[in-house]
Specification:
globular; 27 strands; about 5% helix; 8-stranded mixed beta sheet; single chain; mainly beta; binds 2-acetamido-2-deoxy-beta-D-glucopyranose; Neuraminidase
């Protein structure tokens, strides 16, 4: 399938070359998703944008957040998607079924999702309503945090949970720009994003890193000693130490050929990063093409595998679970699935 052309995009200075990616990926295992058999679509009804995916402690799901602010649960073939949770501001009549982004700030837009498996609680990073939690039976989500150090979040985005301690790590992509203006945040080089932690025992939020350039998804390592943050505007992945002598410091873990969205750990302790667009170069064309790619990184930041988007015109997240890969997207009307 052709990559989608963003003809309505206001950017004129920008440029990209596929060349950089071709050079970058030439030495790795590379596959095109549409060349693989068994690609399947879990189609949503009226809503779009299943951005992030999570499975509960029984392997149920995936759960996903969609354009009208709801969290849905996949019940399997035949049963399809069912409502699981909503934020407390959700107004059924106005929000339900909406894919209109001007309603987002009123209806909410869940971006990051992660379960704390021991309690069954689902943590939600909602772009407009901050950090939320919903109990194992679903229903109305409770708001846990909307600001840190006196500065309100404007674009809560990624979340992961330390499964041993229950401590929740999350990102606010910007204090100045909201989700629907994300391109402006990238173009303006906004660097007001933050990494935070929320401790459910003390109910306190602590800022861990300030001045990030669009921190997006994050993923804790399988031994809980570090976490990775996808920094979208700089096309990098950062490594932040949670334990050991370097605790509280960070360094660049990987330089990417495109703009990363979410990052997820797989069952082997490696990481999948979803990229939507090649890195802009300072010479060349003036169009912005989406180029969805999934990269599998080792625990040392080496690229192990590259999956080309194929039928997916955009990818926000790659979740590997039980021998299957699940693809999230900010604008597509389905979750993509294929068997490894
Ligand atoms: C894992 O995959 C296998 C084979 O596809 C399936 O039979 C099993 O039900 C799956 N387990 C879960 C927890 O989904
Ligand atoms: C939050 O984002 C909106 C829209 O992008 C902007 O108008 C507002 O000023 C931002 N808030 C702050 C505190 O900068």
């Amino acid at each position: 399938m052709e990559a989608k052309r963003l003809t309505t995009n206001p950017i004129t200075l920008a440029v990209l070359t596929l060349f950089a990616l071709l050079v970058f990926t030439s030495s790795f295992q590379q596959k095109a998703i549409d060349k693989l058999q068994n690609f399947e679509r879990l189609v949503l009804s009226s809503v779009v944008g299943p951005e992030s995916l999570a499975f509960d402690h029984l392997g149920g799901g995936p759960y996903t957040g969609v354009s009208d602010g709801r969290i849905l649960k996949w019940q399997g073939r035949g049963l399809g998607w069912a409502d699981f949770a909503v934020n407390s501001k959700h107004r059924e009549r106005v929000c339900h079924g909406s894919s209109y982004n001007m309603l987002e700030s009123a209806c909410g837009r869940p971006l990051g999702l992660q379960f704390h498996k021991a309690t069954g609680d689902l943590y939600i990073a909602d772009a407009y309503f901050g950090l939320l939690v919903v109990r194992p039976n679903g229903g109305a989500a409770t708001q846990l945090a909307t600001s840190a150090d006196g500065l309100p979040f404007n674009f809560t985005n990624g979340v992961d949970v330390d499964q041993e301690t229950g401590v929740v790590y999350f990102t606010d992509s910007s204090t100045r720009f909201q989700r629907r203006d994300y391109l402006l945040a990238v173009i303006m080089g906004d660097a007001t994003g933050r990494l935070m932690k929320y401790d459910p025992k003390t109910k306190k939020v602590t800022v861990l890193i300030r001045s990030l350039a669009f921190p997006n998804g994050l993923a804790i390592s399988n031994d809980n000693t570090f976490l990775l943050i996808a920094e979208t505007s700089t096309c990098r992945v950062l490594k932040y130490w949670l334990q050991g002598p370097r605790t509280g410091t960070f360094k660049v873990f990987a330089e990417l050929p495109g703009y990363p969205d979410n990052i997820k750990r797989n069952p082997r302790g490696e990481f999948w990063v979803a990229l939507n667009q090649d890195k802009l170069q300072l010479n060349g064309q003036t169009t912005l093409e989406q180029h969805p790619v999934a990269l599998r990184l080792s625990q040392e930041g080496k690229v192990l595998e590259v999956l080309e988007g194929g039928p997916m015109t955009s990818i926000s997240e790659v979740e590997e679970n039980n021998g299957t890969i699940w693809f999230g997207s900010v604008d597509m009307p389905y979750v993509g699935v294929y068997k490894l």
